[in-house]
Design goal:
Blueprint lengths: L6 H12 L12 H18 L6 E8 L6 E3 L4 E13 L2 E4 L1 E2 L3 H6 L13 E6 L4 E6 L8 E8 L15 H9 L8 H19 L28
Length: about 230
């Protein structure tokens, strides 16, 4: 099988791979735990690996005159960003993450000092939501910020919710959580081989490009995550 299976289908695969029995009635009490493990397993695989088919490229966010904080483009995971650039006068130039006192000393955003174009960005939270801040505050709406990164996982709560990653990959890793130390060794090997094969297939046609965002760093092949710390 492959991507596009439902939570209910992957729970069944996990039960089979772990040898928990084919009858749902026999493991009714375990079903909530199996679902939790399946969800967590997909999240772990998503967070630890770069999946090219989940990449978001050139997601734009238009600037507004006098606006300092913005929501990230829809579906983009703000913690899996590979590159950021601005479009100004039809030119694309990378911008760096990090707004420090040096920048505020030059143009103090707290005093509503504005200028074009945007030169830096950083994460911002008001305690309830995650946004990004730009510096300096735009003086016009003529600038656009463009992001490259990973999209967020789709909601994976209801039984008919669809997984973003390969069903057997999730099931194999999840099954090891319900097996004895001795029995799970073979299953772990199967899971590792499945992961290796899928990552190799996903990287087909990968090429090295010059990065157009994120501080002017060289772009990595698609199989490598550029982590942004801080």
């Amino acid at each position: 099988m492959a991507r596009g299976s439902t939570l209910d289908e992957i729970v069944t695969l996990t039960r089979d791979e772990a040898g928990l029995g084919s009858s749902a009635a026999s493991i009714t009490d375990m079903l909530p735990q199996i679902k939790t493990v399946v969800r967590r397993t997909q999240e772990m695989l998503y967070e630890e690996h770069d999946w090219p088919f989940l990449r978001v490229r050139d997601a734009p966010k238009a600037m507004a005159a006098g606006q300092r904080y913005y929501d990230f483009p829809a579906a983009l995971n703000p913690y899996r960003i590979f590159g950021v650039r601005r479009k100004w006068n039809q030119d694309y130039l990378p911008i760096e993450r990090g707004i420090e006192w040096q920048q505020y000393s030059e143009l103090n955003s707290d005093a509503d000092l504005r200028n074009d174009p945007v030169q830096r960005w950083d994460w911002y939270t008001d305690g309830t939501s995650t946004q990004f801040e730009v510096w300096p505050i735009p003086a016009s709406a003529d600038c656009t910020i463009h992001f490259d990164g990973m999209r967020s996982l789709q909601a994976f709560v209801n039984d008919d919710a669809v997984a973003d990653l390969d069903d057997y990959l999730i099931a194999l890793f999840a099954a090891t959580k319900f097996m004895s130390a001795e029995a799970k060794k073979e299953k772990q090997a199967e899971a590792a081989q499945r992961l290796k094969t899928l990552k190799a297939n996903a990287k087909g046609g990968t090429r090295v490009r010059t990065m157009t965002g994120g501080g002017g760093q060289a772009d990595r092949p698609q199989g490598t995550i550029i982590r942004i710390s801080g």
